């Protein structure tokens, strides 16, 4: 029974992460994989440029920044359909998300690859956890989309790609 519960929880978390990835908005620094069934020349891995664009065979320069994976997939399918392929089967996946940053009183400050479902607590754990001098209450989060900084955030707050977390020093 316990094994069955564990399997169910694993499948649920995988489907939740997949759903979050489907809603993920692409931007500079993301690495994506484009696969076109039966067309190796049209399948490739791409690091999005500083403007979120990339060159794609037959279609020219495509804008990926600001689009979800599904929207980009549809754009490529529409572009290839007709003149180039009868019924293209395209899949687009994020193979490396852009980074989030953890600074201040953590054991390994720096930039780390974003992961769907990331929280402040998970981000701090990825950065090696709190140092002995870290304040567990004075944590700032700068949202990269809104360019706003929240002070004294909770550990369960969501973290997005490009966000910056700063753990301040405790006085005691």
From TrEMBL:
Keyword tags: Signal
The Soluble ligand binding domain, residue ranges: 99-140
Residues covered by the Polysaccharide export protein N-terminal domain: 19-94
Signal peptide: 1-19
InterPro entries: Poly_export, Poly_export_N, Soluble_ligand-bd
UniProt-recorded name of the protein: Polysaccharide biosynthesis/export family protein
Organism: Enterovibrio norvegicus
């Amino acid at each position: 029974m316990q094994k069955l519960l564990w399997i169910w929880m694993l499948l649920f978390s995988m489907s939740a992460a997949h759903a979050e990835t489907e809603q993920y908005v692409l931007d500079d620094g993301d690495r994506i994989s484009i696969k076109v069934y039966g067309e190796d020349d049209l399948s490739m891995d791409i690091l999005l440029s500083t403007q979120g664009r990339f060159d794609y065979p037959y279609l020219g320069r495509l804008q990926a920044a600001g689009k979800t994976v599904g929207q980009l997939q549809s754009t490529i399918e529409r572009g290839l359909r007709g003149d180039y392929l009868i019924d293209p089967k395209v899949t687009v996946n994020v193979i490396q998300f852009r980074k989030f940053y953890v600074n201040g009183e953590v054991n390994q400050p720096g930039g780390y690859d974003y992961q769907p479902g990331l929280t402040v607590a998970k981000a701090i754990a990825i950065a090696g956890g709190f140092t002995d001098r870290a304040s567990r209450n004075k944590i700032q989060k700068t949202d990269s989309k809104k360019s706003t900084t929240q002070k004294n955030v909770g550990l369960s707050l969501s973290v997005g790609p490009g966000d910056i977390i700063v753990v301040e020093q405790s006085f005691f």
